[in-house]
Structures are given as structure tokens and as C-alpha cells.
Amino acid sequence: MSPERKKAMQNLKTVRGQIDGIIKMLEDERYCIDISNQISASTSLLKKANMHILSGHLHSCIKSAMNEDDMNEKLQEIENVLARLMK
User: Fold this and answer.
1) Is 2 exposed, middle or buried (0-12, 13-18, 19+ CB in 10 A)?
2) Rounded to an integer, what distance in angstroms lies between the CA atom of residue 43 and that of residue 15?
3) How confident is the model at residue 29 (pLDDT cuts 50, 70, 90)?
4) Cα 34 to Cα 22: distance, rounded to the nearest angstrom
5) Angle of helix 32-57 relative to helix 71-86, nearest 10 degrees?
6) Helix 32-57 and helix 3-27: axis angle, to 10°?
7) CA dist 17 → 3, 30, 47 (Å)
8) 46-76 tens-digit pLDDT
């Protein structure tokens, strides 16, 4: 597993724990702002995990495509991902 995927995996495992904590907070009827803060923290970690995955993609798939004929296809993939993230 690449270093970027390892970082993404760690972020996702942390988010999994945070989600369990958020569910418990809801069950315990904790203060709404505290719950919202935890949801925001989880969202940030999901975005960070996504950046690790995309960084790995740029440094592996895109880099290798530069030597192949499918460069336009790989660039279109990145454009599509960026467009989706910008929504």
C-alpha cells in the first residue's frame, strides 16, 4: 500500500471512530453545537483522506499516463473529480 493510501486509511479509521462518537452524542441528547462541531471535524478528515487519494493518483496514475496514449483520459478524470469537489 502506498504512503498516501496509508494516510487516507488512518484518516478514515479516525472518522469511523468519530461517527460512532457522534451517534452516541445524539443518543445521549448532547448539546447541538457540540454535535455539529464533531460532524464538521469528521467532514474535514474525509476531505483530507480524499486529498491523500487524489495525491496518490497524481503521483502514480497520472505520472505513468504521461508516457502513454491515455493522458487525455486521465486529465479528464481529474477535471471531473475537481468539478465534483467544487460543487
Assistant:
1) middle
2) 8
3) very high
4) 9
5) 170
6) 160
7) 22, 17, 16
8) 999 998 998 888 878 777 777 666 777 877 8
